[in-house]
Amino acid sequence: MPEVPVQPARIRHAPWWTRAFHGFNLLVLLVMAASGLQIYNANPVFGGRDGVTMPELFTLGGWLAGGRDWHFGFMGLYALNLGVWIGLLLVQRRRRLAQAGDLSTLKGSGNAGKRQLASHRLVYSLMLILLGFSLITGLAMYKPAQFWWLSGLFAFGEAFGVTAWQTLRVCHFATIPSIALLLIAHVLMSWRIGGMRLLRSMLA
Questions:
Q1: Are 35 and 78 in contact (CB under 8 A)?
Q2: Each residue's pLDDT tens digit in the chain (204 positions)?
Q3: How far apart, in Å, are the Cα atoms of 82 and each of 63, 123, 135?
Q4: CA distance linking residue 107 with residue 115, whole number of Å
Q5: Residues 109, 111, 112, 114: is their CA dihedral positive or negative?
Q6: What's the chain's Rg over C-alpha atoms?
Q7: What is the dihedral of CA 69, 141, 23, 14, to 10 degrees?
Q8: Cα–Cα–Cα angle for 59, 60, 61, nearest 5°?
């Protein structure tokens, strides 16, 4: 008998609100990262004013004041979008978040599908934690007098000869490459599971 061709699994489009938040999140993250790098160039975290700066291609604003305008202008949208997204996940999609047994599944499960799902949950949850951390450190830098209790949390750097302010700046800057790496991991895992069809279903 002739072989019956195997039909690829049908991938359903994500709900409209998921696609909207994915697209809006990407736009906001790009603006926040590019404008943040513009601010960074005015006084690099490593090396002071003569430290290594970022190429203009990756910055937004043209100068320090322009970068601050973009960064602080989008900060409210960033916070609102993150808060709504976490709220919707907790109410409707909590199964996407990491569970207690996901680390055990990664270590000991022989089921490739379960390992993929566990790793996806962990990356997704870490991304939300990092986004929240970037918001907290950003608020501490934006209003250090009003949020003195947040700034004070970074005084642990003084034990290593680094001021609390410099520790805060390093932590805030580190969220950019960290989020970028997790985003790449998220895209690669989605590609491995469903290829371009799955990626398109998230955005369009």
A1: no
A2: 444 443 444 555 567 767 787 788 889 999 999 999 999 999 898 887 788 899 999 999 999 999 999 999 999 999 998 898 888 888 877 777 888 788 888 777 777 778 888 888 888 889 999 999 999 999 999 999 999 999 899 999 999 899 999 999 999 999 999 999 998 988 888 777 766 666 666 665
A3: 27, 16, 9
A4: 9
A5: negative
A6: 20
A7: -160
A8: 130
